[in-house]
Amino acid sequence: MQLFGNTDSGHSYKVRSFLLLTNTPHDYQWVDLSNKPSYFLAISPFGEVPVLLDQGQVFCQSNSILIYLTQKSGQLTGGEEWQGALEWLSWEANRIGFSVPNYRFALHWQAQPPEVMHYLKQRMLTDLNTLNERLSTRAFLLKSGPSIADISCSAYLFWLDQVGIDVADYPNIKRWLAAICQLPGWSHPDSAMKRALSPD
Ligand SMILES: N[C@@H](CCC(=O)N[C@@H](CS)C(=O)NCC(=O)O)C(=O)O
């Protein structure tokens, strides 16, 4: 398996996390998003990372890739709560996986007008409150334990400091992230997604 991703891409980090947490052999290929190589553009259906290549087949869209990987491996599926896992992935795509990355991108790479910044920030705060509230009664998003729901919804939250959020203000999220960090094989996105040094 080959995963194409980038240092700052939490969407790519979701897939890398799954592969690391499940100890799945793979090759991580860092892609320069400011100058996308032609070999990458040739395989990437939307010109975005992540892309996963498995046995000659191309997979894209992070949550869809997570679904593929759980079905292939039988791991982190949520078991009988599979439908719940899918609900969280859909929520993530339109809420926390929209608000946090877009606000972060606007803060660090491409400033937006104040009203857009305000909109993104308020949406992010709403999403963090939703997660914090839902985590008040459980250790992980599904009662059965860690699943792709946690991998997907937590991905960008390991960079909360980059969007001016003190995670201590969201104690249930803080506890949840700490529990995810304890899972065997877990790696912070800054280490998991960095570009490998090329051999001299
Ligand atoms: N919905 C996609 C989002 C992927 C995405 O936004 N990828 C960004 C990096 S995080 C990207 O490749 N941006 C490069 C570009 O759009 O040119 C997913 O879940 O995989």
UniProtKB/TrEMBL annotation:
* Domain GST N-terminal residues, every copy: 1-77
Name recorded for this polypeptide: Glutathione S-transferase family protein
- Gene3D superfamilies, per this entry? 1.20.1050.10, Glutaredoxin
InterPro entries, alphabetically? Glutathione-S-Trfase_C-like (IPR010987), Glutathione-S-Trfase_C_sf (IPR036282), Glutathione_S-Trfase (IPR040079), Glutathione_S-Trfase_N (IPR004045), Thioredoxin-like_sf (IPR036249)
Task: List each copy of the GST C-terminal domain by range.
Answer: 78-200
| Family annotation (SUPFAM superfamilies) | GST C-terminal domain-like, Thioredoxin-like
Record the organism.
Iodobacter arcticus
